[in-house]
Amino acid sequence: MADLTAYLVLAVALVPPLFRQSQRLFGSARSATHAPPPSPSSSRSASKARLAPFATPFSTTVTIATLALVLVSLANLVPVQYGVDIFIPVQAVHNLRRSIYTLYTAPSVYRASSHDDVDRPPFHIQALRGGYTPDLFLAYSAPITIPTTTLRSLIDAAPSLLPIGFHTLPKQQELQALIARLSSYEARRIYLLLGPKPLLDCTFCTKANDFFWYALPFLLAAYAWRILALGLITAHPDDSIAVAIRQAAGLFSRNPRAPPSSKSDDADRSKWRTPAVTLLVALMAIEILIMFELGQVTPGSARLNHWHSNLHLVRQVAFLAIVVVIYLFPSPRVPDTFHQTMQHMDATQQNLQSILHLTEITDATRAVVLDDRDLLRRATTERKHSTTDSAAQLLRAVQTQGGDAASDTLAQAQNGIRSVTLQWWRTAEQLNRQLDRGSPSASSSASAPPHSAAASDPSTNPLAHGTFP
């Protein structure tokens, strides 16, 4: 036995590296025959193209998760009488346990710890049966005020208990216990609001609020896993979970050295996350309010009395509709690295053009200042005072008063630079206008007041539109 265990450990340790190495060699052998990838299409055509559900590992994961959620919701809408039951005999489980004990322990230990399981019922698996179970009053069209003996007789006279899900021997025992608990009006109200589980499982509950608090965690769990599933479906292709899925898929790829697949086939459904989660949280809040406050049960056989069955159907239909709409609604594709690089280069080119334009304006302003003695003297004086004093003032403000004072000082400095630059621009504009008209004196015209009509024209002054910072 020890030798077999050692061989299993060696196999587990050695087989995965050998398998990965063989995949790498196989991928490198096929790489020579691979055709070159097609040229990427434009971003507009890519955004309008139809999304492939199995194009990338992330889209495959989202598709499989969506199909699983749709199947679960549809199964919960199917009545419990439709489906297949799986029964595992106790003898088969008994033989399996005996084989395990014989392999890893002494037979005497198994005989000492084994019990007689001959009389136990077989294991019942209901995974392939419908998930909608109506309450007893709805299944037999009985009013909620029906006497307990009459309800028991009505159930006993039924040809089959399959429509209510109590067709096996353990379930029939639970049914008898449930009928015994439905002897009071308060118990029937709790049954119609919460279902049979709190009445059957909560042995320490004595008041109505005890049953409500017992059922609350199950309701929260029913919504919690749905919210987590929506988080996976609405994940952005650049999120950490999508990156982890692509990295995990790379471990099982035939060519580990190949570059990662393009994200242009992944849909961006992240915009649906907030409205979908908000809708589910609103439904959960409504169910909690109905459970504690709004759920009223009136005498008779009205459909509104069956709160638990109605809310089960509403919950499944709402979740199914949310998942289908999120997956099938046209969503934009995420641009791949090439298109993102082109967009960044476009933005960089526009910024460079703006900087070049500002540089030309600065050169023209410098030329005007150098040609005018008054402006040159004023600029030199302001530079001497502003550079040293402003820097010293800024340092003192940072050291004494903190970042707010420094921000105020910087704002004042920017306003001063804006006003001086505006005056320079108006002077340069006047000089250019006079040169165009053939004026002989450029110096006298350069010293003209800055509030002239020609310089204040907003169509020719880029500073009026906020060109400078």
Automatic annotation (TrEMBL):
<feature type="transmembrane region" description="Helical">
    <location>
        <begin position="211"/>
        <end position="233"/>
    </location>
</feature>
<keyword id="KW-0812">Transmembrane</keyword>
<feature type="region of interest" description="Disordered">
    <location>
        <begin position="432"/>
        <end position="469"/>
    </location>
</feature>
<feature type="transmembrane region" description="Helical">
    <location>
        <begin position="312"/>
        <end position="329"/>
    </location>
</feature>
<feature type="transmembrane region" description="Helical">
    <location>
        <begin position="272"/>
        <end position="292"/>
    </location>
</feature>
<protein>
    <submittedName>
        <fullName>Uncharacterized protein</fullName>
    </submittedName>
</protein>
<feature type="compositionally biased region" description="Low complexity">
    <location>
        <begin position="439"/>
        <end position="459"/>
    </location>
</feature>
<keyword id="KW-0472">Membrane</keyword>
<keyword id="KW-1133">Transmembrane helix</keyword>
